[in-house]
């Protein structure tokens, strides 16, 4: 039996905080403040969801993976193929992308989650590489190196058309991201989510108290795959183009860099790391088109040295210092 005080403390800790509204207020304000950057903003919002899916599986469940791009690309190609072959309705395309990615996550998870450590890491890379080669081989269907051509995405609810200015795409990505964030927040603050943290911290102890570790790891892996699929489908629909780069291994590495910048296992790390990385990439590539990646790397080194735990980790340490001085 849990004491009433413990239950009350747990409930209070997971109540909504006013600061949680800040990312959404910034997103709405950015739409009006930077109208010329709305298309980039839509890509940032969709990528935040991709990073959020990686954070769920890595930051909370402790499953080290470099294969999230497999699910991202699956969602993108599913939505893209539907739009290419006569079904461009965006919401059902989004759901189809999530379902296809979840299926790939479930089937691959049944095999690779039986392993741990370096073996698990390598198997996630193998799954992503196999999908990459399979899509490239089926160039008659996917377009191969040339990418998927001829996508026609219908207006949302028959009214809101995706245009070159990216306004519909921006709010479409914002609403989908909010709904997915709300679901992920409920997951990580539920008993299921707390058990994931327990699995990450001490697998043997969770086995000892009777937690079905294997089943829960598979469930969260499948959920994270579905979220990555939604992210890929959103980018495919809003850009109306899908290429092999959607399955590229560099995308998985990049999303981990974004999480490290923001803070892994903190739910909001994706909301900080993704905008910082993508805005820095946009700025550095315009200033130094050839060597812009050097400046990204230098920024990462400085962040790791001076802000361990990412931006959120740095903020937490500063907050503790301020409190200790009072």
Structural description of this entry:
This protein is mostly helical and 326 residues long. It has one domain (19-325): ABC transporter involved in vitamin B12 uptake, BtuC. Helices cover 74% and strands 0% of the residues. Helix 3 runs parallel beside helix 8 (167-188) and helix 4 packs across helix 11 (213-239). The radius of gyration is 20 Å and the shape is globular.
Strand percent estimate: under 5%
pLDDT < 50 runs, ≥5 residues: none
- Specify the CATH architecture: Orthogonal Bundle
Termini gap: 37 Å
Shape descriptor reads: globular
- What series of H and E elements makes up the topology? HHHHHHHHHHHHHHH
Coarse structural class: mainly alpha
How many structural domains? 1
Tell me the helix content: over 70%
Give the C-alpha Rg. 20 Å
Number of contiguous helices: 15
How much is the average pLDDT?
89
Could you say what the CATH topology is called?
ABC transporter involved in vitamin B12 uptake, BtuC
Number of strands: 0
The protein's oligomeric status is single chain
Question: Which helices and strands occur, and which strands form pairs?
Answer:
Blueprint: H1 4-13, H2 22-33, H3 38-60, H4 68-84, H5 90-112, H6 117-137, H7 139-142, H8 167-188, H9 191-201, H10 203-208, H11 213-239, H12 249-262, H13 269-287, H14 292-306, H15 310-325
Key structural traits:
single chain, about 325 residues, mainly alpha, ABC transporter involved in vitamin B12 uptake, BtuC, 15 helices, globular
């Amino acid at each position: 039996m849990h004491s009433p005080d413990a239950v009350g403390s747990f409930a209070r800790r997971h109540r909504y905080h006013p600061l949680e509204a800040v990312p959404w207020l910034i997103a709405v304000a950015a739409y009006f403040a930077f109208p010329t950057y709305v298309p980039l903003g839509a890509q940032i919002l969709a990528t935040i969801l991709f990073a959020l899916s990686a954070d769920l599986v890595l930051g909370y469940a402790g499953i080290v993976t470099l294969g999230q791009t497999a699910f991202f690309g699956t969602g993108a190609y599913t939505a893209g193929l539907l739009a290419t072959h006569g079904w461009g309705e965006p919401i059902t395309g989004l759901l189809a992308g999530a379902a296809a990615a979840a299926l790939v996550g479930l089937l691959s998870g049944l095999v690779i989650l039986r392993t741990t450590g370096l073996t698990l890491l390598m198997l996630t890379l193998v799954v992503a590489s196999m999908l990459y080669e399979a899509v490239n081989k089926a160039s008659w269907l996917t377009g191969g190196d040339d990418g998927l051509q001829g996508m026609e995405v219908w207006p949302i609810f028959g009214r809101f058309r995706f245009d070159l200015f990216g306004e519909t795409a921006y709010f479409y990505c914002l609403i989908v991201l909010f709904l997915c964030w709300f679901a992920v927040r409920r997951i990580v603050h539920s008993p299921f989510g707390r058990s994931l943290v327990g699995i990450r911290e001490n697998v043997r102890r969770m086995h000892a108290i009777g937690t079905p570790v294997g089943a829960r790891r598979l469930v969260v892996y499948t959920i994270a795959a579905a979220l990555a699929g939604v992210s890929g489908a959103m980018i495919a629909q809003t850009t109306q183009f899908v290429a092999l780069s959607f399955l590229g291994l560099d995308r998985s590495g990049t999303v981990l860099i974004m999480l490290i910048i923001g803070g892994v296992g903190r739910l909001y790390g994706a909301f900080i790391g993704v905008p910082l990385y993508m805005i820095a990439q946009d700025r550095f590539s315009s200033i130094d088109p050839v060597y812009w990646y050097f400046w990204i790397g230098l920024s990462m080194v400085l962040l790791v040295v001076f802000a361990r735990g990412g931006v959120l980790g740095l903020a937490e340490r500063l907050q503790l210092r301020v409190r200790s001085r009072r």
